[in-house]
Structures are given as C-alpha cells and as structure tokens.
Amino acid sequence: MENTQNTPLKALVEVDHPWLAMAPLMIGAFVGMLSETSLNIALPQLMTAFNIPAGTVQWLVTGYMLIIGIILPLSSIMTKWFSTRKLVSFGLAAFLIGAVISAIAPSFTILLTGRMIQGLGTGIVLPLMFTIAMQVFAPDKLGGAMGACAMVIMLAPAIGPTITGLILAKLSWNWIFWLFVPFLVVALFLSLTFLVNTTELTKPHVDTLSIIESAFGFAFLVSAVSLISDFGLGSVLVWVLLLAGIIILAFYVRRQFKLTNPILNLKVFKLSQFRIGALIVMVDFGVILSAMYLLPQYIQSGHMLAVAMAGIMLLPGGIVNAVTSAFAGRLYDNIGARKPAIFGFIIALIGSIMLATLTTSSPVWYIILAHIILMIGCPLAMSPSQTYALNAIQGPQAADGSTIMNTLQQIVGAIATAISTILLSLGQNMASSSNKAAAFTNGTHYGFYFSIALIVIGLLLSLKIKKVND
Q1: Would you say 15 and 133 are in contact if contact means Cβ atoms under 8 Å apart?
Q2: Which of 50, 89, 220, 248 could form a disulfide with 108 if both were Cys (CB 3.0 to 4.6 A apart)?
Q3: Contact between residue 237 and residue 225 where contact means Cβ atoms under 8 Å apart
C-alpha cells in the first residue's frame, strides 16, 4: 500500500511537453471566444459601413454562434474518426481562412461567410482543449491545467470589449479580424509540431439521423434565442424556431440513449458530480456573458463615455480575471471545488449588486471596482467547478463530457444575452425619466437583476458540491 501511495500519478497519455501540446488549443480557443464577444462594440460601425439595419448586422453574432452550436455536439464522434493533430490543425486553418475573408470582405454577405467559417474552427477547437487537457496532465496537475483553460475561456469575454474599443478608436473594423491572424498562424505551427493523438481511433458507426437531428435541433434553438433580442417574445418566427428546436432535440436525446454508439454519450448526466459541476459552469458563464453584454453599453449609453474609454475601463477587470482563473485552478488541487465555488459566488454577488446600483453619474473608480469584484468571483467559481465535473468521467467519456459542457455554454450564452436584451428594453420603457442616458441606465439595472438571480442559483448549486473528504 505504501508503494502505491508513493508512486507518482501519471497522465493517461504521456507527452514530452504537455503545455506545448496544449498551446495551440488554448490560443485557438482564446481567439474563438474573443471573436464571439469582441464584435458587439463594432456592430454600430458595421451598420454604417454596409448600410444595414440592426436586425441584419446581428447575424454576425447569431451566425457565428449558430455554426458553433451545430459543430460542437459532433466533436466527440470526430475524435473517434480523426487524429487530434488533424482535427485541431483543420479547425485552426478554417478559423484563419475565415478571419482573412472577414478582414477583406467588400460586402456584408462575404463578411458573414467569413464569420461562419470562423465558427466552424471554434466549434472544433473549443471542446478539444478540455478533452486533451484531461488526457495529457496527471491527476495531481489537472487542477492547474484546467485553471489555465478556464482562464482562456473567461479572459476573452472580459477583455474583448477593451481590445475592440481601442482598435476602433484608431483603426477600422477590418483590423479586428486582422488581429486574429498572427495568433492563428502561431497556433497552427504549434499544432503541426507538438500535437500527438490522444484518443483511440475506433471509427464507430455514425448514425446519420442523429447528426441531422443534432444539426437542425441546435441550429433552431440557438437561432430562436438569438433572435429574441431583435423580434421579441411575441414573434411567431421565434416561437416556431424554439418549439421546432426543442422537439427535434427531444428526439435526438431519446435516440442517443438507445444507440449502442451514440453521437454524444448523454449518460454522463447520470453522474451527480458531473451534473452539479456542469450546471454551475453554465450558470457562471451566463453571468459573465450577460454582464459583459450590459456593462460596455452602459458605459457608452448610460455614462456617455467614448468607446475607447469603455475599453480602458474594462481592462483592469480583464487582467484580474486572468490571474484569478489561474489561481482558482490550483485551489482545486489543494482544497477541492466546494469552498472556491461558494466564496466565488458570494464575491460575484457583491459585484453584481454594485453594478445594479449604477447611476448616470457613478464615479469611474466605482464602475471599475464593481467589475473587478465580479471578475474575481466568477472565475473563482468557474475553474474548480469545471474540473470537479470532468473528474467524474474518465477515458472515452471525457470527450463527451467536454463536448456537452461547451455546447451548453454556447446555448446558455445565447439565452443569457437574449434575456439581458429583453430586460434592458423593459427597464428603458419603464423608466420614469425622459432622459435617454437615465432610461438606459435603468434598463441595465433590470439586466443586472438577472445576473444576480443567476448568481444566487449558482450559490445554491455550489452547496451541493461534495467536500474533499466526503
């Protein structure tokens, strides 16, 4: 027994340089998430550049999320048919091509095409980052590795508005896409040089009907929740897409439980540890995206500051987010997930309450402080909870767990943004003041109330995490 305890824990797949193997995935995932969140500030400029209405330009966000929503559920089956190097290199190359197309796009149609090609790359690379981390790091190092992965996911939405704001202050919107290119070139080189295959290529039977159900079900659902912000809940189109998506996905889920070789092994939800951890991650991600959707708009339309100033004000929180994410991952290795998750949500609650009390004349330092507090709390809960969930599954199921979590993150992100938009409009309409800035600020209050509600749900879920000694 003593010898067993002293034997170093080994990774499932031993590689000479695990961090170099992870580097292309982390760079690709970061650029993918940055692309998802950085374009919000640029939408008004794009409307002017192409002379298009808000409903049309919104498809740059919706279309990107739509492709990710279609590709993500297929990630697990792809790892059983294609080597890790081929998959990652293809995803990075697709994103690179899409970024160049978008950067030189002479028309909105070509720009949208480039964005959707980028979505293809993100949909492939994003879930593989967590799957490969589970394979190449030893169990006693996994918390730190997952913390670094969570840092990538959490940092991009936090600093996306900052980077976009600074670019638009001096350059045209095209440079948002040119910014991605050097990172992707480096990631592609690292992928071709250091990545090895981490999964067994069993090449199981592929159920065509499941792929069709997955593609249409997730496409309809993501489209519906994304279009709510444009057409409202009274839209027939929204309800048709929503109901169609739910019905098709119900058939998809039923079929996955019956198949011997499912496209996505949903049976992992029977594991309470995975279920609780995954739900916490979903809620936390919803808080981040809803807050980062509302705050840049409040700074510009509620506080009446320039877009460049909005970017600068959000930068400290982005930096704190990165540091906390890395630190939180290491906490899991030492004390587990329960305490970091509970304290994380309590801290995030304080930050959200501060944001919900903003006025048109709130001091700049107060806005920055509230954002920093939120950016401490959310990653403190996110990284340990994600590791807690994925530690419940081993072997081939690890790819399924990672795919499920990333797919649900995209859906939750779309839903959280849509609800925040609805509440923002509701708050503006209910404002007693005729002043546009005051009315907009009142709208953001309603949006941040939603963030507070999500945090309370996350806090209650974190109480269900088992203690280290349980």
Answers
A1: no
A2: 50
A3: no
Q: CB burial class (10 A; 0-12, 13-18, 19+) of residue 204?
A: middle
Burial class (CB in 10 A: 0-12, 13-18, 19+), 192: middle
Structure letter (DSSP) for residue 206: P
Amino acid in the structure at residue 26:
M
Q: Looking up tokens 């930068």, which residue turns up?
A: 315
- pTM of the full structure: 0.74
* pLDDT winner (highest mean) among 46-60, 163-177, 216-230: 163-177
What is the dihedral angle through the alpha carbons of 149, 153, 156, 159, rounded to the nearest 10 degrees? -90
Per-residue pLDDT reduced to its tens digit, 98-139: 999 988 988 888 988 898 898 888 888 877 777 777 777 776
Cα–Cα distance, 456 to 438 (Å, whole number): 27
Q: DSSP class of residue 205? A: P
Question: Which residues lie below 8 Å from residue 2, measured CB to CB, with a gap of 6+?
Answer: none
Burial of 288 (0-12, 13-18, 19+ CB in 10 A): buried
Q: Of residues 469 and 47, which shows the higher confidence score?
A: 47
Closest-CA residue to 451 (of 381, 350, 380): 350
Task: Write the pLDDT tens digit of every residue in 48-97.
Answer: 778 876 567 767 777 777 787 778 777 777 777 777 778 888 889 999 99
Q: Which of 314, 407, 411, 424 is nearest to 369 (CA)?
A: 314
Token digits of residue 222? 């993501």
Whether residue 110 contacts residue 100, with contact meaning beta carbons closer than 8 Å, is answered with no
The superfamily (CATH) of domain 11-206+263-462 is: MFS general substrate transporter like domains (1.20.1250.20)
Average pLDDT on 32-61 reads 74
Comparing 76 with 354, the larger pLDDT belongs to 354
Contact by Cβ (8 Å): 29, 129: yes
Residue 266 · residue 278 · CB < 8 Å: no
